[in-house]
Design a protein that fits this description.
The complex is a heterodimer of chains A (296) and B (428).
Chain A (H helix, E strand, L loop, with lengths): L1 H10 L3 H29 L20 H7 L2 H33 L5 H13 L2 H12 L4 H6 L15 H25 L4 H9 L4 H12 L1 H16 L3 H6 L12 H11 L3 H27 L1
Helix pairs in contact in A: 2-14, 3-14, 4-8, 4-11, 5-8, 8-11, 9-10, 11-14, 13-14
Chain B lengths: L1 H20 L8 H6 L4 E5 L3 H17 L5 E5 L6 H11 L5 E5 L4 H6 L12 H9 L16 E5 L3 E5 H6 L12 H13 L5 E3 L14 H8 L6 E2 L2 E2 L4 H15 L12 H4 L2 E6 L2 H5 L6 E4 L14 E2 L3 E5 L6 H11 L2 H11 L2 E2 L4 H4 L1 H6 L4 H6 L3 E2 L7 H17 L5 H16 L1
Parallel strand pairs in B: 1-2, 1-3, 6-9, 11-14
Antiparallel strand pairs in B: 3-12, 4-12, 4-13, 5-9, 5-10, 7-8
Helix pairs in contact in B: 3-14, 9-10, 10-18, 18-19
Classes of the chains: A mainly alpha (296), B alpha/beta (428).
Amino acid sequence: MTRRRAAAGTFGRQPVGLLLSAPYAVFIVAVFAYPLGLAVWMSFHTYIFTAPGVSVPRPFVGFDNYTAVLSDPAVRQAFLNILIFLVLNVPLTVVLSLALATALNAAIPFRTFFRVSYYVPYVTASVAVVGVWLFLFGSGGLVNHALGAAAPSPSWLINEGWAMPSIAIYVTWKQLGFFILLYLAALQNVPKELYEAAAVDGASKWRSFLAVTVPGVRPATTLVTLLAIITGANLFTEPYLLTNGGGPNGRSASPVLLMYQRGVEQGHPDVAAAIGVLLVVGVLLIAGLQRILDRD
Amino acid sequence: MRSRIQLAAVTILTLTATVACGGSGTSPSSGEAATARGPINIWYSNNAQEVAWGKQMVEAWNSAHPTESVSAQEIPAGQTSEAVISASITAGNAPCLIYNTSPAAVPNFQAQGGLVSLGDFPDGASYIGTRTGGTAEQYKSPDGTFYQLPWKSNPVMIFYNKAVFTKAGISTTDPPLSSYEDFLATAKKLVSSGAAKYAIYPSPSSQFFQPWFDFYPMYAAESGGKQLVENKKATFDSDAGKAVAGFWQQLYAQNLAGKEAYTGDSFADGTAAMASVGPWAIAAYKGKVDWGVASVPTRAGGSGDQAATFSDAKNVAMYTACKNRGTAWDFLKFSTSAEQDGKLLEMTGQMPLRQNLEQQYAAYFTANPQYKTFAAKTAHVVEVPNVPASVEMWQAFRDAWSKSVIFGKEAPDKALSEAAAKINGLVK
């Protein structure tokens, strides 16, 4: 009896629950906690990846890697770039996906066709989609032909001012389908009676959207914002393929792109880990701020 | 509650200990492995011609050595081959031999403890020296030994599209491309005539290896065969380096070279009239482009066959995860024998890094004269310097090049000086 009570004290009142959740806990530890712990450890040491059994000194270096990273103009530029990206991408994503989801939720002709159309870019390989975007936004592309003399020079993707906004717009467009899907699911849970009551009170469509739809999908908005911030902060493929690896002059380089260069190509995983830890802290701060604003 | 805290604490401590200890497993001891014999595995490039060569070569070995069989596969797909190889070194599952080891990546692999010193085999250095001759010296590591076997080179030259040149009214038998002045005039004519959108379109990407196809071949030619770094000092902050940078800056400033990402093959598509390529291009463009070939230009011109160029070599390295290194070394010699080098030449058109190449395979070059121009270049190839922080060094160079030469945000001379200072700090 005493032993059973002791076991209950250690494993809680439902030890079977612990057993059932163990596989996921192991997964979390192996795939998230361990790499994160290793990254933090690496960022405070001199570290290189070595073959098994090869012993190299890995001295503790305190904040040296962080100092190196923060004094590197390329890294500072990359963090600024990602901030520009998030400022453009997150609001655009929220507004457009909510507006389109609302439209697609209404009884419009070819609704299924439109739903599929918005989802196609999301499930298409980036390499293929980037080709289309280059065709559109290249110096001799369709957009510049349409704009004529109003087209920027140098063209969008090699223009220091336009490279990052172009990527932000591209990513918004590419991921819109997924976020529309989240909002469509959320819209199903907004009670129809609220719309009817708003109509009885004489609310216009726009007023009804602001007073019923927007508050009704608020949990989805929180999720969309959070996911857009996280995926945006992890930007890699688009600057790698669309703007020649973060060009021009590093104006579209992202922290993850620099992590790849420093950690994988150049053999400095300690420096890459410091960039990664700063990125995680930055994302957590932004996400925390967003949660506080959302609560208010 | 207390017990649960203890349980959590033990878990965290275990995790921290695992993190601090790093990886597990060990490479085989080098003493035992050096002479051990038995099955081995190898990786080769995924290029179709090389795969065909690799398959026949492995088959030939396996039929003669049933107890020391070789299994082969293409290098697993990844962002780059170097990233995949580096990961496999760390994981301890690299194969015995990789037939696509980039010389620029060797210093990193060596620092990882991933490479076997080929100089430790009794006939290691002598075999490499006899096969490759004096060129082999460029592939020695700073400690004076070989961690790579110089295997094949792809001397970089200028391919030009004869149809586009004809359309622009430029000679296709002796096009004016040998001096910077001639090259620029030809480039302008090609673009202004509407024959091609760009004269030349090397990738403007910021990847560390892109200078090998714009700056480095021309710098090798202009400097009389200098490497980017010699005696632990950058060499390009010089008249030769500045001349090459100035030449490319003009091409970009006048929109004669493309600055944007290009997803296809600009030369095959006819978007660019010229391309920096190696002999692999002969097979690649067969039936697609009616091409001609010229040496990379120099400021004064007229250097022709004697001008140096970048080797674009790919080598073979032996990896420390290999248990049967005795077999691996024998197999390496078999696969780089005169017979297999001849087959490599026939099946891929790539040049084995073997001295007296033209004489040794005279019949092949008589039957395939288009390869002869490239073969003549193999005696004048310049390799990337084998220095620590090699990739970091090339990235520093590329960043300076992109900023100044491609996008014109800084004077190339100043950018080269700054890059040289940074590189001197990296390789000292």
